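Structure first, sequence second, as always.
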């Protein structure tokens, strides 16, 4: 495993649109194909409490197509199936739809679905429907050139779309995301908080949340292995993520939580993730 820590010598892609099967996936010819858009194409993700690392509490299983697109995700809780998501793509490997099912009375029942729309090969709208194909939410994406400028989330009320909240994005001259600000009105004002990113040698270095009061909500630093993989993330001086690799593949991830509500997540947020390919 790789344990050495070297700050800013690798890569990290920031997802701008956020915001995790029992069938076999295709065998890959070399380790590099285990990565697609910065994500490792593992078959399973198993989750354990750090306090009881031998007792599995949940598991995700993944299926991919020949292009590495995730076509199915199965979620298990204590070995029992709970949710299943299936996805379709077009010939340009752009996602067209998600269908989310929940497991009930020994069968899968549709919970909701998502439809993705594109213009000039850019995602411009994501619509969420209920089981009766009734609108629930939609997200719209507005661009400045090739860069996402605004992401806005609306809820459906009667025949109208009402803005819930949105994000405004800013970039530096190199096209790196440097700011993500949230807003709550259609004028894109009333900023709730702002996330500021810095880079070194083209790689993400720090992330800071600034509240409306001007105070810092958190400060994160990112560290990488000699091979360029994300090694460790610290938040306010505490390690919150530590990754372990073998043969250029992510094999294990440890997380820690130091916030004000440790009971918010399982095992107080102190988890171990294990990956199989």
């Amino acid at each position: 495993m790789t344990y050495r820590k070297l700050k800013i010598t690798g890569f990290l892609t920031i997802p701008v649109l956020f915001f995790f099967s029992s069938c076999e996936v295709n065998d890959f010819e070399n380790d590099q194909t285990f990565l697609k858009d910065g994500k490792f194409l593992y078959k399973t993700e198993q989750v354990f409490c750090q306090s009881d690392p031998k007792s599995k509490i949940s598991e995700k299983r993944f299926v991919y197509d020949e292009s590495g697109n995730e076509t199915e995700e199965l979620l298990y809780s204590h070995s029992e199936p709970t949710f299943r998501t299936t996805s379709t793509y077009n010939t340009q490997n752009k996602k067209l739809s998600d269908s989310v099912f929940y497991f009930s009375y020994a069968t899968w029942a549709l919970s909701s679905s998502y439809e993705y729309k594109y213009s000039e090969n850019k995602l411009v709208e994501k619509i969420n429907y209920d089981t009766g194909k009734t609108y629930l939410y939609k997200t719209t994406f507005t661009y400045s050139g090739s860069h996402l400028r605004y992401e806005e989330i609306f809820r459906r009320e009667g025949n109208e779309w009402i803005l819930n909240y949105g994000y405004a994005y800013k970039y530096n001259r190199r096209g790196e995301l440097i700011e993500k600000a949230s807003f709550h009105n259609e004028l894109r004002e009333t900023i709730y908080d702002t996330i500021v990113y810095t880079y070194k040698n083209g790689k993400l270095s720090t992330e800071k949340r600034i509240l409306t009061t001007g105070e810092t909500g958190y400060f994160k630093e990112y560290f990488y292995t000699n091979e360029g993989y994300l090694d460790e993330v610290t938040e306010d001086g505490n390690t919150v993520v530590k990754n372990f690799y073998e043969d250029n593949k992510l094999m294990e991830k440890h997380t820690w939580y130091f916030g004000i509500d440790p009971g918010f997540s399982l095992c107080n947020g102190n988890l171990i993730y294990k990956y199989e390919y």
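Margin note: Residues 252 and 274 are 5 Å apart (CA to CA).
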